[in-house]
Amino acid sequence: MPKYVMLPPLDDLRREWARRLSDTLPEFEVALPETDEEAAEELKDADGAYGWIPPEALAGATKLKWLQNPDAGPFLGYYYKELVESPIVISNPRGIYFDHISHHIMMFMLALSRGLPYWVDAQKKARWDKDARKHGYVNLPDSTVLINGVGGIGAETARLCSEFGCRVIGIEPRSEVDSPAELHEPEELDSLLPEADFVVTTVPHTPETEGMWNAERFRLMKNSAYFINIGRGKTAKIEDLADAIEAGEIAGAGLDVFEIEPLPSDHRLWGMENVLITPHVAVADAENIPERRYEIILENARRFLDGREFVNVVDKEKWY
Predict the structure, then answer these.
(1) Which of the residues 4, 15, 88, 145 has the least number of beta carbons within 10 Å of its own beta carbon?
(2) pLDDT at residue number 320
């Protein structure tokens, strides 16, 4: 009987998933170790697992064929050298956030395009000020949106932007992506940045993307353009971004993720009226995300039993 280990830290959700997996696929033995020590022991004869395997436990997991990563963009250190070089196939839950996060992006875009931060500031001061807005409107049907990363989130964002009449440029290495965006290779990013009224980045944190949004790239943007980061905070150098906004090199930003989280309370970004900040919550209260996450676990468990290829297989060298 194949064995599947739900790795710690355990919570009510993981315990519920384990129960459902056992009920739906009785062919699986499902283990629920409470500690890292217990997990290392369970992994010795496990065929599949959910979570993260510490390096010290990997050597003993000689039967393990499949590991389900809980996150599309996991914490730094999830993909360590020994795991990357192992024969274990890793899958992730990419695609389950596409609608929630794209709606968050559109919230930022609409608010920034209409000058909402300035009107909110005037409202807080009970000030009837028709001149409160300090930047011109961006008319979406006349605008160009550059989306860096046209996966599930980026593709849905491109669809929504196109419904508003925007021209959408997509930066994406995979040519098979189905999207209304004009697709371009990552090497073309710098030449396309000057065309964009909105730059939206959805890419995960990888060795290639860390710090890719820096002073040099912000200088390539229009001074009327907005930067929106909904992917991973470490892709953008926070001080370079703040400098670019203060210098008027870009018009402002919508940020849900940050190089440092929580964003320090004394950071100057908090006080910038043309910056919208949410504390990494684009999918925090989305009630259907846990079910979508479980459905991927279940689908891949079925594929394991049938000997079929897993969904959402990760390129371990690239971390996604």
Answers:
(1) 15
(2) 87
